[in-house]
Write a structure and sequence with these properties.
The protein is 68% helix and 0% strand. It is mostly helical. It is globular. The protein has helices at residues 3-18, 33-53, 57-78, 91-100, 106-125, 132-151, 161-164.
Length: 165
């Protein structure tokens, strides 16, 4: 592999993102921004479960955090309290917005932000080590939050989790 090959691949990737997509992932071809976030969360949880079975614990932890954030963003968009362009741009910002909009209590939002700061970032970027019990606990938390948020939605029937299982 040379730098020329890498540059060529970067250009190919850029071109792929510039083209109109043709083979869209099943279930994600929706017009509604809220439903797109909900269904991304469903897919992230399904992916986390598959990766957990393959013992890829770092990826399970990462996907679980992202699934929580997509679930929160679904609820923010569904309620009409935010527009797609206004969604929080940071991970802790998602939790703060969830508390501000009454999705979680302030304490719960702070606890989630602490988990993200203290453990997700450490596991992904620093010296934290992913393990089976950590991945299992994080996956269980993400699944419960997804179900909690979806259970309060008028669009809960749009969730793909039952289709995936």
């Amino acid at each position: 592999m040379s730098s020329t090959q890498i540059e060529q691949l970067i250009n190919e990737v850029q071109a792929a993102f510039d083209r109109r997509p043709t083979e869209i992932e099943s279930g994600l071809d929706v017009e509604d921004a809220a439903l797109l976030q909900l269904r991304k969360a469903c897919r992230l949880l399904a992916g986390a479960e598959a990766l957990r079975e393959a013992n890829y614990y770092t990826l399970v932890i990462e996907a679980s955090f992202v699934a929580i954030e997509r679930s929160v963003e679904f609820r923010l968009l569904e309620r009409g309290t935010m527009q797609p362009d206004d969604l929080p741009g940071t991970h802790p910002g998602v939790y703060r917005e969830a508390a501000t909009r009454g999705i979680f209590s302030e304490t719960m939002a702070e606890d989630l932000a602490d988990l993200w700061r203290d453990h997700r970032a450490k596991t992904y970027y620093q010296d934290g080590l992913a393990s089976a019990d950590r991945a299992e606990a994080m996956y269980a938390l993400a699944s419960e939050i997804h179900a909690y948020i979806n259970g309060r939605s008028r669009q809960s029937h749009e969730c793909l989790c039952d289709e995936i299982d």
